[in-house]
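User: Teach me something about this protein's shape.
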Amino acid sequence: MIIGRKNWNIPKHIARFQYTGDFSAPPFTVQLYPEDPSIQTPFFTASLRHLSFWTPTFPFSSNFLKRLGIANAMVQPPLPEGDPKDLLCGTNEWYKNTATLYSPKTKLLWMDLKQEENEVSKGKENWWPGLKRWHLAVWLQDAQLDMGEPEVLKV
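Assistant: First, the predicted structure itself:
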């Protein structure tokens, strides 16, 4: 948590993850809960399954976005200190990061964002207003993420 906040200005919160099914291969479901173990309602659920019986894998690199004229840079504002201060350190500068993501085995999947029926989700199709239930998702096996050194921006 400290490294992400200090090096890239990425806010972090601890969450509990629950996986149903074989996480090494779809179909499976991922649920996220707040850190507090007394909270039994997930704030996010996604179920992933294959597009069809057989879907080929292909290599993927975020570097191709540059060829399309898309900048994959992320600009993060300074972060205030949190509590506890030793874990949630604060920063004073704006950072710009250009992450590179690569996977030798990438596959397209269906992602279902239907949420469990509870007092929070009652009457809503999913967790984000206006977001449709079904989406294409990308499965990145053996993925490598390189955040690189951030650039300090003068504001």
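Now, about its shape. The CA atoms of residues 61 and 102 lie 4 Å apart. The chain has a mean pLDDT of 84. If you'd like, I can walk through any region in more detail.
User: That's plenty for now, thanks!
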